[in-house]
Design goal:
Layout lengths: L11 H8 L4 E5 L5 E4 L1 H17 L5 H4 L12 H8 L5 E7 L2 E12 L2 E11 L1 H19 L1 E5 L5 E4 L1 H7 L3 H4 L10 H5 L1 H11 L4 E8 L5 E12 L5 E10 L1 H122 L4 H116 L1
Antiparallel strand pairs: 1-2, 1-5, 3-4, 4-5, 6-7, 6-10, 8-9, 9-10
Helix pairs in contact: 10-11
């Protein structure tokens, strides 16, 4: 499709040719009125029409032909002044909303006079995108090692970063195979052949591997092999973006060694924590048993203290009774002494009676027959005196025995009183000691209960420590697995 300009002297064939080119062409007359648009520019404008209308309310594809080119500018005065002085092609980039267009404005001259303008339109998106891609690739090239291979593994070129890592100059590796960077065993392996087959089939490969630098020096490379496809989808080459991870690899190897040491220490700590937990549990039981026994001992000592107090009271009572018995014994001894005086008096009386009886007998004999009756009385009195004398002797013997026994009892009571006094003092001291022991035992029981509580807290802490050690052990195990994976 093409639109013939009304005032442009061009042949139909040339306009038809412009209508079939891919270039997006617009022609304006000297007054900047649009007189021609080929099919490519019309298609582009229609595709962008909705967005252009949001920025340019006067824009409409239905009225675009014949309108002034000012419709593309909010403030067209600057463009008009620039175009009025234009005598050679002028390139510009304009933004309308999110759309960016590259323009090439060429003045048309006939017989030294400007007859119009040809404006070539191009969507700048792809150009700017390619510029962005090129900038990103340049940034990657500055940050990473880059090398390009043919699909069979032949080296095409490498950037300075790659050459620096591997220690080669560009001419030393160009045209050689990737096998230059691997050991002989790897180069001959089936995995290595499959690796290049996969790349040739268009499958990207990301891998970390040990490579051989110049002079046999080992380096570790983290690389991404990327097949590059042409417009037909065929692999044309392979580009590798790589980073030298040798320092990290060496550090990870050291880290793995450190983690192995930590794991050993954690395992030992775990065992020690388990042992401590068992010991703390045993200690808790023992201390609780001691606390229980101490409480039982305290109860027993309290009972003993009560018994000792009762014993002291009983001893005090016995002492009082011994004092009383001693007093009674002294009284008995005094009474026995007094009875001795009475017996002496009776003996005197009996002696006097006997003497009197003798005198009566003598007087009765003198009196003869008249004194027989008195003689009988005197005889009876004499008998009575004899009996009294015998009774007095018996009483004397009994009183002597009583006095001896009273003296013995008094001596025994004195000894008992001394012993009771000693026992009383000892019981008092024992009662005081038992009371003090009861207080100490009570304090010991309280301390044992506190110790049991403390050991229980220690056991709880040991449990927490054991759990923490298990968590640390698990974390170390995971870290070690990660380190081993990184070292591989």
């Amino acid at each position: 499709m093409f639109i013939r300009p009304a005032r442009l002297d061009r042949s139909a064939e040339r306009l038809a040719a412009l209508d079939h080119v891919r270039a997006r062409i617009m022609i304006a007359d000297p007054d900047l009125n649009i007189v021609y648009m080929n099919a490519s520019v019309i298609a582009m404008m229609r595709e962008a029409e909705a967005e252009l209308k949001r920025e340019l309310p006067r824009f409409s594809m239905d009225t675009l032909m014949g309108s002034n080119i000012d419709v593309f500018h909010k403030t067209p005065d600057h463009q008009r002044r620039m175009l009025a002085a234009l005598d050679k092609p002028h390139a510009a980039t304009i933004r309308i909303g999110s759309r960016i267009f590259d323009l090439l404005v060429t003045p048309l001259m006939e017989a030294g006079r400007r007859s119009g303008f040809v404006v070539e339109w191009e969507d700048a998106h792809h150009r700017l995108l390619n510029l962005d891609y090129a900038a990103q690739i340049a940034a990657i090239g500055r940050a990473q090692a880059v090398i390009e291979f043919a699909i069979d593994g032949t080296i095409l070129k490498a950037n300075e970063n790659f050459l620096s890592v591997m220690g080669y100059r560009a001419e030393e590796i160009a045209g050689r195979h990737h096998r230059l960077f691997v050991d002989d065993a790897t180069a001959r392996s089936a995995e290595y052949a499959a690796f290049w087959d996969k790349l040739a089939a268009g499958t990207p490969v990301t891998a970390q591997g040990r490579r051989i630098a110049k002079g046999g020096r080992a380096v570790w490379i983290e690389g991404s092999y990327n097949p590059i496809l042409d417009h037909r989808g065929q692999v044309t080459k392979v580009v590798k973006f790589a980073s030298d991870v040798t320092p990290q690899k060496e550090m990870l190897a050291k880290l793995k060694g450190y983690i192995d040491s930590i794991d050993t220490a954690v395992s030992r700590s775990h065992r020690e924590a388990d042992a401590a937990r068992g010991a703390a549990g045993t200690a808790t039981g023992d201390v609780r048993s001691v606390a229980g026994n101490a409480e039982a001992l305290a109860s027993s000592i309290h009972a003993i203290a009560g018994n000792m107090e009762a014993s002291r009271s009983a001893t005090d009572a016995a002492f009082a009774q011994a004092e009383a018995v001693g007093a009674d014994t002294q009284g008995l001894a005094s009474a026995a002494q007094a009875m001795g005086g009475i017996v002496a008096l009776i003996r005197d009386i009996a002696s006097q009676i006997n003497l009197l009886s003798l005198n009566a007998t003598i007087e009765a004999a003198r009196a003869g027959e008249a004194g027989k009756g008195f003689s009988v009385v005197a005889s009876e009195v004499k008998n009575l005196a004899v009996q009294a004398a015998r009774a007095t002797e018996q009483i004397t013997r009994e009183i002597d025995g009583l006095q001896a026994r009273s003296a013995s009892v008094a001596k025994a009571m004195a000894t008992i009183r001394e012993q009771v006094t000693t026992v009383r003092g000892e019981v008092g001291r024992a009662a005081g000691a038992v009371s003090e022991q009861a207080a100490v035992t009570q304090e010991m029981s309280a301390s044992a209960r506190s110790a049991a509580s403390a050991v229980s807290s220690v056991l709880s802490s040991v449990e927490e420590i054991s759990a923490a050690v298990r968590d640390v052990s698990g974390a170390v195990g995971q870290t070690m697995e990660a380190a081993e994976a990184l070292v591989r």
